[in-house]
Amino acid sequence: MTTFEHVRQIIGDVLQLGDRTSKLGPDSALLGSIPEFDSMAVVTVITALEERFDLVVEDDEIDASVFETLGTLTSFVERKQ
């Protein structure tokens, strides 16, 4: 499984998107576009990414641009690895 596929699966699991998960592509907008993606979901996604990819995400590394699209989130994870 690629990094993108893992990130997409984490988003789908955290937001409980079910079948909608497979429709998410790199250009799929996240914040402001998926009603389930609220501030609590952001924290849960960050925690899941840290656990899955063995990363540490510092508070000052996170801003809205990281969560703009699934592609920007995947790029962030790849840079952290």
Helix/strand layout:
Blueprint (H helix, E strand, L loop, with lengths): L2 H13 L23 H15 L16 H11 L1
Write up this protein:
The chain is an all-alpha fold and 81 residues long. It has one domain (3-80): Orthogonal Bundle (Non-ribosomal Peptide Synthetase Peptidyl Carrier Protein, Chain A). The chain has helices at residues 3-15, 39-53, 70-80. Helix 1 (3-15) crosses helix 2 and helix 1 packs across helix 3. The longest helix is centred in the middle third of the chain and has 15 residues, at 39-53. It starts with a helix and ends with a helix.
Detail the poorly predicted runs. none
Q: CATH homologous superfamily, by name?
A: ACP-like
Total number of helical segments? 3
What's the helix-strand series?
HHH
Instruction: List the domain count as a whole number.
Output: 1
What is the share of helical residues? 40-55%
Task: Enter the CATH topology name.
Answer: Non-ribosomal Peptide Synthetase Peptidyl Carrier Protein, Chain A
Q: What is the overall silhouette?
A: globular
Measured between the Cα atoms of the first and last residue, the distance is 15 Å
Rg for CA atoms:
11 Å
Q: Architecture, CATH level 2?
A: Orthogonal Bundle
The secondary-structure class comes to: mainly alpha
Q: Could you tell me the number of beta strands?
A: 0
